[in-house]
Specification:
About 50% of the residues lie in helices and about 20% in strands. By secondary structure, the protein is an alpha+beta fold.
């Protein structure tokens, strides 16, 4: 007994299957995790090491080099890069894409061990290296908190309160605070009084350190118990620090006799944040992995609402990004699109096959969709942009299985067969070809879904959902569809005429007979058309991932290297004032000194620099961004010519960075900068579509070099360290201790009055205290003056080699791939000295890496697909006919994309794979139908025509329903190019398939044609 007949005879089991799919789908919708984008592991860790006082070159040579040497021994390593600034090494460790997220904790432990082992070879003055493996944490609930009129201490208390309370919310993994005001206690001795009293700077620093340090005081044993002794408490207020006394020459001197003590903000904070131009700090909330972010976000909103009575009046929580709201809206909108697609399918089927067939196929399709959600929940596949899109991508293949079965049963029952006989006959002819074609359709996506890189991880849910839905559609097509057909289809008398006697079928049959007679002309026409379409496809714009449909875009602004954060903040205020007058701007957040917290997975924060300004701008609608962005770029470039001003759209998918980038690696910084300048000149000469050319080494920065006189200093008993400390005391200040205020640790700085505002002229007269002479000596007696030197203060290394990267953007709407093609040749012609190399980065590298990874997987998938097609027919000529159809998949794609002007993006590639799967499926079932018709003894030519005619309606219906089902996706920025790819490709190639497949079949059986001619003669 066949499966289809058993589904009717044992209907209870079939109804149970339907109930499981339906109720399971409802349960799945209620419990499944929801995200905006699929989670992919950011396989990066950051190693930070401070080296106070060192130049960028010394940091690179003495800190980064030994650490990189130790780290590169890890076999899991892919790329290691470092950014070296004066006093700080920042090493980025990227793990090879063959390791998945579950292996990372162990890899990070190994990284920590390597870094720890390397500490012994670092300079003694270098700090302990810190390994940050939470670089990829996403704080999707992101607020800017403004508190005008509150003191800095009160703002810190508010931040601590909010963080503490939100951390208690179920499902919250972490809460990140950024941009809090940075305070210090400033001790500023008067130089003249200090000199007269003979107070050594070290004595001041030591007294403050002793008064604020935490030291053990031991313990005693008493009555069998060990009792700890607390040390005398240190200074716990600014007034107590003012009242400190210092021993000088056997006398006690009050600190206030020669110094002022004050509390205030640091002049050069690490970061400044503003919201709508108002000072703010940010609060980012991340949810635990695998949970429904919508539920977590709603609980956070509820908790914040509960806290409102305890939050002081005037403190506002302004949402910058609310992932749970975005996910909820996107999921609902996409579910609506999915529902619209299903309704469109049912309406089309009702028009062309009647309401009974529409009910059978539509119910099967609905059960397939909800059943897929059920299995998604079981396997832990979240409902996000890619997994939901997979259902629509698979729609054509999902509906095709049910249409084939319903069409077959309807035809057989119209000829008088009972429903059981029709089910058995239809299943016998189609269930194995449909299964084989379904598996082939799944394997078309295996190369992407099983790719080990970030793109493969990002798109894994696509492969998983397509696999689940297609297999489930086959199961339901041969079980549920026959049962529903049994209930709803009417058995005919058998004398109602042929099922394919309509005018459309007769016209198609006549056309096909002509095509078979003119087969070589048809093949030549198909070949010429395909070649023309491939040429047209070469004219289609290329794109990696499309721009996001979230109404956000960014501003990046950089002053020349060496600028202060105050100057950057002042320039950003100019932009803020301009934005505040634009009615389409909903809100804007300003970050000065670094990027924002990673509030979405595809957002990559910039490295912290005082010269960097960043704006996140939200508009009312997506359509307002292009004009606003163009106006803003024009204003910013004109109003702030002293800096580099550029905007950037938020993009889907992994990637980020400059769209065009070329790297030069080699030992000499001067040669690297020369190569970079030559590359910039060649790029500008080759294309007028480049903008914002820059290097990641930025500009060289002036440094003041004291000319130290060894002889005079030795005579005076002064060391290099004494000179350096005196200069620090005269400028940034010397850290003397830590002031503790609840959980805060506030530095205490000893510095010269006015040190932060004076230029360098006062340095030459700065006194240096000589311990040997017990007196202060003017610095000019120890130096031969100062000189200026231009230094590299941002040295980038890649795989242990100094590497400079020339980066460039393209104007909005211009395709980066096309511009890259224009400049590639001339840049690669640059003569490289021995020991230097050139590599391309940017979008070209990202796309190439993804395609290379895909290319490694596709041959295996392709081999499996070919083997399945051969095993299905157990012959070679029939699979050859099927695979000859695949090249024609591009025909309609090229026409559709050229007509709409959309680029061929990575999502369009998914559409092309889906299209190939549909063509293969149609071809397999069509060729199988011809073989079965021939097996019934029908003459060869007539068998080809009759079998093809019998497949016309299901093929056209599957194509029409799929094409119309894509219509709701045309308004989705992520899926628009994919929708056009499937619509254009399927619409064009389906017509060709119904001609090409029979013609190819006719050609590969010359013996049958000759035998038919002999029989006719």
């Amino acid at each position: 007994m066949s499966i289809a007949r058993a589904a009717i005879d044992r209907s209870l089991l079939t109804w149970l299957l339907m109930l499981i799919c339906l109720l399971g789908g409802v349960w799945g919708f209620a419990t499944i995790g929801r995200l905006e984008d699929p989670a992919f592991t950011i396989k990066n860790a950051i190693v930070l090491t401070s080296y106070p006082g060192a130049t960028a070159e010394e940091v690179a040579r003495e800190v980064s080099e030994p650490l990189e040497t130790a780290i590169q021994q890890m076999r899991e390593l892919d790329v290691i890069t470092s950014s070296n600034k004066p006093g700080l090494s920042r090493i980025s460790v990227e793990i090879a894409n063959t390791y998945d997220g579950s292996e990372l904790p162990q890899i990070w432990d190994k990284l920590r061990a390597r870094v720890s082992d390397a500490q012994s070879v670092l300079p003694a003055d270098a700090g302990t290296s810190i390994v940050n493996d939470s670089f990829g944490d996403v704080y999707g609930i992101f607020y800017a908190i403004t508190a005008p009129g509150f003191s800095d201490a009160e703002i810190h208390d508010i931040a601590d309160f909010l963080r503490r309370e939100i951390l208690t919310v179920d499902g919250v993994a972490d809460v990140s605070i950024m941009g809090l005001p940075e305070e210090a206690i400033f001790v500023e001795p008067e130089p003249a009084i200090v000199a007269n009293l003979g107070v050594a700077p070290g004595a001041i620093v030591g007294a403050i350190a002793d008064a604020t340090s935490v030291v053990p005081a031991g313990s005693v044993e008493q009555a069998g118990q060990r009792i700890r002794i607390d040390a005398p408490s240190g200074s716990t207020s600014v007034d107590q620090i003012r009242n400190l006394t210092i021993g000088v020459g056997g006398e006690i001197v009050d600190l206030t006799d020669f110094a002022t003590v004050s509390r205030g903000r640091t002049e050069e904070p690490a970061m400044i944040i503003r919201y709508d131009g108002q000072e703010a700090f940010t609060l980012g909330v991340s949810g635990k992995a695998g949970l429904n972010i919508v539920d977590v976000g709603n609980r956070v909103d509820e908790r914040i609402a509960q806290l409102q009575p305890d939050i002081p009046v005037g403190v506002d929580l302004n949402p910058i990004y609310q992932q749970h709201v975005v996910v909820d809206e996107a999921s609902n909108a996409f579910l609506l699109n999915l529902a619209m697609s299903v309704v469109i399918v049912i309406v089309v089927l009702a028009l062309f096959m009647g309401w009974r067939s529409a009910l059978v196929v539509g119910t099967t399709l609905l059960l397939t969709v909800v059943g897929t959600v059920f299995f998604m929940a079981i396997f832990g596949i979240e409902m996000e942009r890619i997994s939901l899109g997979a259902l629509i991508i698979a729609m054509g293949m999902l509906v095709d299985n049910a249409i084939v079965v319903a069409e077959g049963m309807q035809s057989d029952m119209a000829h008088g067969k009972s429903s059981r006989e029709a089910a058995e006959d239809t299943a016998r002819k189609t269930q194995i070809p449909l299964l084989g074609a379904t598996v082939i359709g799944i394997m078309a996506f295996a190369g992407i879904g099983l790719s080990p890189d970030a793109t493969g991880e990002f798109l894994f849910s696509l492969f998983a959902v397509i696999g689940i839905s297609l297999l489930l559609s086959w199961v339901l097509a041969i079980t549920v569809s026959p049962l529903l057909a049994h209930y709803f289809f009417v058995t005919g008398s058998g004398d109602d005429g042929g099922a394919y006697d309509g005018p459309v079928f007769r016209a198609y049959a006549a056309t096909l007979r002509v095509a078979l007679r003119l087969r070589w002309l048809v093949v030549a026409g198909l070949l010429g058309l395909t070649v023309a379409c491939y040429w047209g496809f070469g004219q289609v714009k290329q794109q990696f991932f499309p721009d996001s449909n979230t109404p956000l875009f960014y501003v990046h602004y950089k002053l020349p290297q060496g600028g202060s954060i105050k100057a950057t903040a002042a320039d950003m205020a100019v932009v803020e004032e301009w934005l505040s007058d634009r009615p389409e701007v909903t809100a804007f957040s300003t970050f000065i000194g670094g990027g924002a917290s990673r509030f979405m997975l595809t957002y990559a924060p910039e490295e912290g620099l005082p010269t960097y300004g960043h704006l996140i701008i939200r508009t009312d609608t997506l359509e307002q961004i292009p004009d606003l962005r163009a106006d803003l770029e024009t204003f910013g470039r004109n109003a702030l010519p002293q800096g580099e001003f550029r905007t950037e759209r938020l993009a889907f998918g992994p990637g980020g960075g400059a769209p065009i980038a070329v790297r030069f690696s080699g030992p000499d910084p001067d040669v690297l900068r020369r190569l970079a300048r030559e590359a910039e000149e060649r790029m500008l000469a080759a294309s007028d579509q480049l903008q914002d050319l820059r290097t990641d080494w930025r500009e060289r920065e002036l440094a003041i070099l004291p000319i130290y006189d060894e002889g005079r200093s030795k005579t005076a008993g002064v060391t290099r360290s004494d000179v350096a400390q005196a200069l620090q005391y005269a400028t940034d200040g010397v850290r003397a201790g830590t002031y503790r205020e609840d959980s805060r640790l506030i530095p205490i700085l000893v510095r010269m009055p006015g040190a932060s505002t004076e230029g360098g002229e006062h340095l030459i007269g700065q006194p240096v205290y000589s311990e040997a002479a017990q007196t202060s000596i003017p610095l000019e007696q120890l130096l031969d003056g100062f000189e200026y030197e231009a230094q590299d203060t941002l040295i980038q290394r890649r795989n242990r080699l100094p590497t400079i990267t020339v980066e460039a953007g393209v104007p909005a709407g211009v395709n980066a791939a096309g511009v890259f093609t224009e400049i590639r040749g001339t840049v690669e012609e640059i003569a490289l000295p021995e020991g230097y190399k050139l590599e391309w980065g940017g979008e070209f590298e990202s796309s190439s890496d993804a395609q290379e990874s895909l290319g490694r997987q596709l041959p295996i998938s392709l081999l499996i697909m070919v083997l399945i097609s051969i095993l299905l027919f157990q012959k070679l000529r029939q699979p050859l006919v099927v695979w000859l159809l695949v090249p024609m998949a591009v025909n309609g794609v090229a026409i559709g994309l050229l007509a709409t002007g959309l680029p061929f993006s990575f999502t369009a590639l998914l559409g092309l794979l889906s299209l190939s799967g549909m063509l293969l499926k149609n071809g397999i079932v069509l060729v199988e139908e011809i073989d079965l018709t021939r097996a019934d003894g029908v003459p060869f030519t007539r068998a080809v025509v009759e079998a093809s005619t019998s497949r016309l309606r299901p093929v056209l219906l599957a194509a029409i329903t799929t094409i119309l089902g894509m219509v709701p996706l045309l308004s989705d920025a992520f899926f628009a190019s994919m929708a056009v790819t499937i619509m254009g490709g399927l619409g064009f190639a389906t017509i060709l398939t119904m001609i090409a497949a029979p013609v190819f079949y006719y050609l590969v059986f010359p013996g049958e044609r000759r035998a038919e001619k002999r029989a006719a003669a």
